[in-house]
Design goal:
The protein is α/β, with parallel strands linked by helices. The chain has a single domain, classed as Ribonuclease Z/Hydroxyacylglutathione hydrolase-like (Metallo-beta-lactamase, Chain A, 4-Layer Sandwich), CATH 3.60.15. It has seven helices and 14 strands. The model has no long low-confidence stretch (mean pLDDT 95).
Length: 259
């Protein structure tokens, strides 16, 4: 197995034509964990695994319960329940609201869900996931959101989920080899009114760049783009604050991990 991060989907809110929302597969030292499973990601995950029932997946991390980050978790449940009933349960690390959403989709009955998923709440920990230690922190959003950090002896990945500006971003991504940060850029869309939430609950690309600079992260991956956004403009905005390598997420992108 190659050490890499694979982008399953990179849109925020809803997928662009042919696209998918937030989802990332981290493969490292024979261990495979998926981070978020938004609209359209499950089929891509199964294609990567080469399995209709998600054989080869070791763990699932979901940052929060907005559907563009978790709705295909229910599809994963179905793949495991109908395709691998009786198999060992998959560790699921998520905010409690994520599991509550799954229960609602199952008409309030979690009997089968608890046979498929082994639940671990976020933010909490630390947890041991194969070669990684998982730590997490609460970050500002419309709903409870857990920024996560996966650390091994020689590689660190940090991921914000959805967040507004916050001092905790610098610590979450401190010295990360790869910092995966949202850069929603709703302000690029004249037809879409920017959120008026206070405090703000999404990052601009320039703020992602500044947070990556404050964290001394080695590489920055911008993602969670509002459909129709100009991603290169976002990268240019981030580069005004961050002088490290900036990657722009697109569906199917494979990023070799540099340890």
């Amino acid at each position: 197995m190659t050490n890499r991060l694979v982008v399953l989907g990179s849109c925020g809110a809803w997928p662009e034509p042919g696209g998918a929302c937030s989802g990332y597969v981290l493969e490292y030292r024979g261990y495979r964990v998926v981070l978020d499973l938004g609209y359209g990601t499950l089929s891509r995950l199964l294609e990567l695994l080469g399995s209709v029932s998600a054989d080869g997946l070791d763990a699932v991390v979901v940052t929060h319960h907005h559907p563009d980050h978790m709705v295909d978790l229910h599809a994963l449940f179905r793949a495991r329940w109908f395709g691998r009933r009786g198999a060992s349960s998959l560790p699921l690390y998520s905010t409690p609201e994520v599991y509550a959403m799954l229960v609602a989709l199952e008409d309030g009955d979690d009997t089968e869900l608890r046979q498929v998923f082994d639940l671990h709440p976020l933010p909490a920990g630390p947890y041991e996931l194969g070669p990684f230690q998982l730590t997490s922190v609460s970050l500002p959003h419309f709903v409870p959101n857990a920024g996560v950090r996966l650390s091994s002896a020689d590689f660190i990945l940090a991921y914000t989920g959805d967040t507004g500006p916050d001092r905790a971003l610098a610590d979450l991504g401190r010295d990360a080899d790869l910092y995966v940060m949202e850069a929603t850029a709703r302000d690029q869309q004249a037809s879409t009114l920017p959120s008026t939430a206070v405090p703000r609950v999404h990052l601009r690309a320039s703020e992602a760049g500044q947070a990556a600079a404050d964290a001394h992260a080695r590489r920055l991956l911008l993602t969670h783009f509002w459909p129709g956004s100009d991603r290169l403009l976002s990268a240019e905005a981030a580069a005004r604050a961050y002088d490290g390598e900036i990657l722009v997420a697109r569906d199917g992108l494979e990023i070799p991990l540099l340890a």
